[in-house]
């Protein structure tokens, strides 16, 4: 960029940061946007089933409205078992009629919600998906937890009473995370069913921020063993280690494109933090513009490939999204560390003061937010990762 | 006549070789600017002798090949020194003489400020007088960064302090690093004073596991 123009841009951008968002209608049904929520009217359910169903559907782009505004009527009951029926309001066509047994009320309701989403949107639902996160207990120590996507049924995965960080999923049954169990942070893989845990990075310095490729075969991470925090990739077991960046400044927070070809990460090599992409097999980094958002950090690439969500350090923390090729960033919430849902529509993030954070769900197009209740044994939950 | 010529030529040859050698030594200490090779050495036009008269004695062959000026490869601005893995198992010594030498950083920066350098020099001279011991530098951040960003920035701060210790003559293999990101603030407050105390690099004196009486099994 011509230096004269870049100075002009810098002079303008603080003004633009102060609330004059570029007017991009992210509800436009076009490439990169999302379809408007499908209006439905829900009746007949009670208590937990009613609230779980409405929450699930909200984050799948289905909104509960009054019957006269609804396109579909969803009726059902949970008197004895969970039953649901979906009909088109105008022509009365039956879309779905199903009953659920054999699980808890919540799990049966999640199953109904997923079936409704599949029927109405044509896409798989997310109501039965899982998250991982860090639960902090005190003095920086904490454990890794998994839970339902809405934060229910939390289970501790680790019991080390040490500093842990940045859990990420490999498929649906393995987590990778950094642990200070052996002193400085090292990356471990942890199979959830067997409990089998392996040290992946036995190197000195910082071994942090693991990110497993969507196809589960490769691992990106930040290692400082060469004398500076740089981006590395390897096989998921740590073999075939390859250094991708070689800068004196700090790289952080790699994430993968859904086609496993590209890694997006943060680098301070050009002064203030910027988003970069680089081929997963090595090459020249390419800067990704995130206009109107200062200091982008902790990126996450949407599974449909279109968006990168990240945290802008702008006084308070802001959840932003930008198109994957770069451009104008859009603020979608207040908080940090977003992780996309598999449907590229919802995301989970956290917010709150240090050591007292809460997880929260966000429906990106409508900006509706729902806090997740804190788990009892931990005063702070952060660094969520949504299993995709 | 011939003898004088020999002396002159020898003087020139010595002069030239001295200037070449001197040129090389000079280059090791400087960072060449892009596009330039040597610094400070005047180029000798072909055929001209330095220090002597420019009249060629009759019959003497004149070497008109331009001599290439030796160029040291430019210092790689991204060169870093690897960490020593064997320090990972070393443990904190009972007494830490470097507690008061904590280095403080500006917000979102990993460069050591000029006013902090004397602390590093003090630690450097201290550790050089402690054979068998090493240093671990803890890098920390304030809460105004996100967690992984801070974990990387904290490490970069520890490494910046390590580099200056190396420049002060401490062996690179005796300096370990660990980043705590924002996990271990020195001051849990949420104001500028607290944040300033938290952006820091702390020196920990470490020694091999066998040196300590209590063994800390991992």
Question: Which short descriptors sum up this protein?
Answer:
heterodimer; A: 388 residues; mainly beta; Rossmann fold; Neuraminidase; 2 domains; five-stranded mixed beta sheet; four-stranded antiparallel beta sheet; 3 helices; 11% helix; 44% strand; B: 218 residues; alpha+beta; 60s Ribosomal Protein L30, Chain: A; 4 helices; elongated
Q: What is the fold's blueprint, element by element?
A:
The complex is a heterodimer of chains A (388) and B (218).
Chain A (H helix, E strand, L loop, with lengths): L2 H15 L20 E6 L3 H12 L3 E3 L7 E6 L4 E7 L5 E7 L4 H17 L8 E9 L2 E8 L6 E2 L7 E7 L3 E6 L6 E6 L5 E3 L7 E6 L5 E6 L6 E6 L6 E2 L7 E6 L5 E6 L6 E6 L6 E3 L1 E2 L4 E6 L5 E8 L1 E8 L3 E2 L1 E5 L1 E5 L5 E6 L6 E6 L4 E4 L8 E7 L2
Parallel strand pairs in A: 1-2, 1-3, 21-25
Antiparallel strand pairs in A: 3-4, 4-5, 6-7, 6-31, 7-8, 9-10, 10-11, 11-12, 13-14, 14-15, 15-16, 17-18, 18-19, 19-20, 22-23, 23-24, 24-26, 27-28, 28-29, 29-30
Chain B lengths: L1 H28 L61 E2 L10 E2 L12 H12 L5 E7 L6 H21 L7 E7 L10 H7 L1 E8 L11
Helix pairs in contact in B: 2-3
Task: Write up what this structure looks like.
The complex is a heterodimer of chains A (388) and B (218). Chain A is mostly beta strands and 388 residues long. Chain A has two domains: 38-121, Rossmann fold (3-Layer(aba) Sandwich), CATH 3.40.50.11830; 130-386, Neuraminidase (6 Propeller), CATH 2.120.10. Chain A is 11% helix and 44% strand. Chain A contains three helices and 31 strands. Chain A has helices spanning 3-17, 47-58, 105-121, and strands at 38-43, 62-64, 72-77, 82-88, 94-100, 130-138, 141-148, 155-156, 164-170, 174-179, 186-191, 197-199, 207-212, 218-223, 230-235, 242-243, 251-256, 262-267, 274-279, 286-288, 290-291, 296-301, 307-314, 316-323, 327-328, 330-334, 336-340, 346-351, 358-363, 368-371, 380-386. Chain A has a five-stranded mixed sheet with strand order 2-1-3-4-5, covered by helices on one side. Chain A has a four-stranded antiparallel sheet with strand order 8-7-6-31, with no helix packed on it. In chain A, strands 9-10-11-12 form a four-stranded antiparallel sheet, with no helix packed on it. In chain A, strand 7 (141-148) and strand 8 (155-156) form a beta hairpin. Chain A is globular and about 65 Å long. In chain A, 48% of the residues are buried. With 218 residues, chain B is α+β, with helices and mostly antiparallel strands. Chain B has two domains: 1-76, no CATH class; 85-211, 60s Ribosomal Protein L30, Chain: A. In chain B, 31% of the residues lie in helices and 12% in strands. Chain B is built from four helices and five strands, in the order αββαβαβαβ. In chain B, strands 1, 2, 3, 4 and 5 form a five-stranded mixed sheet that branches. In chain B, strand 3 (134-140), helix 3 (147-167) and strand 4 (175-181) form a beta-alpha-beta unit. The longest helix of chain B has 28 residues, at 2-29.
């Amino acid at each position: 960029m011509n230096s004269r123009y870049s100075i002009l841009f810098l002079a303008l951008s603080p003004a633009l940061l102060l609330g004059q968002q570029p007017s991009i209608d992210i509800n436009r049904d076009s490439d990169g946007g999302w379809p408007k929520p499908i209006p439905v009217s829900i009746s007949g359910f009670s208590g937990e089933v009613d609230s779980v169903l409405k929450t699930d559907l909200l984050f799948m782009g289905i909104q509960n409205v009054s019957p006269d505004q609804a396109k579909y009527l969803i009726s059902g009951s949970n008197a004895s078992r969970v039953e649901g029926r979906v009909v088109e309001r105008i022509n009365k066509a039956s879309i779905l009629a199903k009953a659920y047994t054999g699980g808890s009320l919540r799990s049966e309701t999640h199953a109904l919600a997923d079936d409704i989403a599949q029927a109405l949107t044509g896409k798989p639902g997310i109501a039965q998906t899982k998250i991982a996160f860090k639960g902090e207990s005190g003095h920086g120590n904490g454990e890794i937890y998994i839970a339902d996507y809405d934060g229910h049924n939390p289970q501790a995965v680790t019991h080390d009473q040490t500093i842990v960080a940045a859990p990420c999923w490999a498929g649906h049954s393995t987590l990778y995370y950094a642990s200070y169990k052996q002193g400085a942070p090292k990356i471990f893989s942890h199979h959830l069913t067997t409990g089998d845990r392996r040290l992946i990075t036995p190197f000195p310095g910082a071994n942090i921020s693991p990110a497993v490729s969507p196809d589960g075969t490769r691992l990106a991470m930040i290692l400082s063993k060469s004398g500076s925090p740089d981006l590395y990739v390897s096989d998921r077991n740590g073999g075939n280690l390859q250094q991708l960046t070689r800068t004196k400044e700090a790289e952080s927070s790699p994430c993968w494109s859904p086609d496993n070809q590209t890694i997006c990460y943060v680098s301070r090599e050009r002064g203030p933090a910027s988003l970069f992409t680089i081929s997963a097999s090595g090459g020249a980094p390419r800067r990704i513009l995130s206009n109107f958002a200062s200091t982008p950090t902790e990126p996450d690439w949407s599974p449909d490939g279109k968006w990168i969500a990240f945290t802008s350090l702008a006084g308070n923390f802001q959840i932003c999204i930008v198109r994957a090729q770069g451009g104008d960033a859009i603020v979608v919430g207040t908080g940090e560390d977003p992780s996309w849902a598999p449907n590229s529509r919802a995301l989970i993030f956290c917010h709150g003061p240090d050591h007292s954070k809460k997880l929260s769900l966000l429906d990106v197009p409508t900006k509706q937010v729902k806090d997740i209740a804190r788990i009892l044994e931990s005063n702070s939950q952060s660094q969520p990762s949504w299993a995709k | 006549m011939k003898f004088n010529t020999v002396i002159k030529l020898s003087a020139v040859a010595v002069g030239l070789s001295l200037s070449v050698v001197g040129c090389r030594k000079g280059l090791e200490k400087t960072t060449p600017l892009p596009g330039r090779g040597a610094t400070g050495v005047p180029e000798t036009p072909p055929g001209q002798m330095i220090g002597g008269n420019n009249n060629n004695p009759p019959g003497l062959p004149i070497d008109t090949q331009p001599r290439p000026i030796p160029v040291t490869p430019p210092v790689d601005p991204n060169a870093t020194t690897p960490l020593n893995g064997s320090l990972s198992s070393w443990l904190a010594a009972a007494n830490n003489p470097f507690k008061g030498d904590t280095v403080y950083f500006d917000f979102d920066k990993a460069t050591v400020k000029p006013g902090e350098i004397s602390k590093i020099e003090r630690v450097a001279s201290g550790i050089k007088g402690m054979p068998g011991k090493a240093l671990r530098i803890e890098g920390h951040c304030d809460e105004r960064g996100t967690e992984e960003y801070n974990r990387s920035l904290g490490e970069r701060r520890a490494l910046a302090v390590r580099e200056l210790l190396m420049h002060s003559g401490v062996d690179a293999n005796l300096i370990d690093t660990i980043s705590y990101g924002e996990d271990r603030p020195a001051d849990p407050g949420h104001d500028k004073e607290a944040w300033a105390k938290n952006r820091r690099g702390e020196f920990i004196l470490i020694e091999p596991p066998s040196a300590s009486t209590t063994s800390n099994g991992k």
